[in-house]
Write a structure and sequence with these properties.
eight-stranded parallel beta sheet, about 30% helix, binds manganese (II) ion, Arginase, Chain A
């Protein structure tokens, strides 16, 4: 209602989509209340502002802040299109703030991210994480694996992120090679969607590259994904560079020929039957963005995931 502002301070107990003046007020993701309580919420949003593992342009450390700002544009009562309901009517969700990282101790950062994830999962909530570069998914998956075993990865990306590297070397293009080798994920029950870079080895992952999506359409991608993942617990990881640079220029390693925002959103909206454990959205680098369209795409895709979880409970 008009008149309320700064509801990030007082939107208790995490209910309702929360509406205030779009261009003002304290920023949080979708006007969620900020809280360090990890036991009450069912879904905890947080940022992991880490960008030291990139192979090209840095800047994703500013992703969480930018996505939070773009998300205010989506915090409307009445329900997001096309779902038509308030996803926070039956999902208690908070914004935890950002993972504490010490850039003075870079070798400790993976452990800090893993402990952050372990804390957020400790009360039984699901995580919705804003990167950061894609490396952050790796320590998160370690914490996810402790609770759920080898999950299915539903992976949207321009890149496979499975390039082979020695054990002691991991960056934002190799972590899923290590995750598969270490049994953190089950590649046979995982899908990679939107790829458009060459990698001779699949490491067992099921790939629907960008050409496949464009030629066969989103419905076929949905059907294949539902069949491959089945009822295995699944983790959704969305690298914003899965989208074509015309939809998401604000990222470090853009690749032409990608998905539209609509294609990605429509695929996710079709995955309601999947048992999703958590999600991250990574690689938003606002310094290269135009008109905030990349941050808005990221926030919108995250909102679709929240609506998916809500739909599962309806
Ligand atoms: Mn990636």
């Amino acid at each position: 209602m008009h008149g309320d502002t700064d509801i990030a301070f007082e939107n208790q107990p995490f209910h309702g989509i929360g509406h205030e003046i779009t261009y003002a007020g304290a920023l949080s993701f979708l006007r969620r209340a900020y809280s360090k309580d990890v036991h009450s919420p069912e879904l905890i949003v947080s940022g992991v502002p880490f960008d030291l593992a990139v192979s090209n342009r840095p800047g994703t450390r500013f992703g969480p802040r930018s996505i939070r700002e773009a998300s205010t544009n989506l915090a409307w009562t009445g329900g997001p299109w096309p779902w038509g309901f308030d996803p926070f009517e039956n999902i208690l969700a908070s914004d935890f703030g950002d993972c504490v990282l010490d850039q003075g101790k870079p070798d400790k950062i993976p452990q800090q991210i893993e402990e952050h994830a372990r804390l957020l999962l400790s009360g039984g909530a699901k995580m919705l994480t804003m990167g950061g570069d894609h490396f952050v998914t790796y320590p998160i998956l370690k914490a996810i694996h402790e609770r759920h075993g080898p999950v299915s990865l539903v992976h949207f990306d321009a890149h496979s992120d499975t390039w082979e590297e020695p054990e002691e070397r991991i960056d934002h293009g190799t972590m899923f090679y290590h995750a598969a080798r270490q049994g953190l994920v089950n590649p046979q029950k995982s899908v990679q969607i939107g790829l458009r870079t060459c990698n001779d080895k699949t490491h067992g992952f099921n790939i629907m590259d960008a050409d496949y999506v464009h030629k066969n359409g989103v419905q076929k991608v949905i059907e294949n994904t539902l069949e491959i993942v089945g009822d295995n617990p699944a983790y959704l990881t969305f690298d914003i560079d899965c989208l074509d640079p015309s939809y998401a220029p604000g990222t470090g390693t853009p690749v032409c020929g990608g998905l539209s925002t609509w294609q990605a959103q429509t695929i996710i909206r079709g995955l309601v039957p999947i048992n999703f454990i958590s999600m991250d959205l990574v690689e938003v680098a606002p310094a290269y963005d135009v008109g905030d369209i990349t941050s808005l795409a990221g926030a919108s895709i995250m909102l679709d995931f929240i609506c998916l979880l809500s739909q599962q409970k309806r």
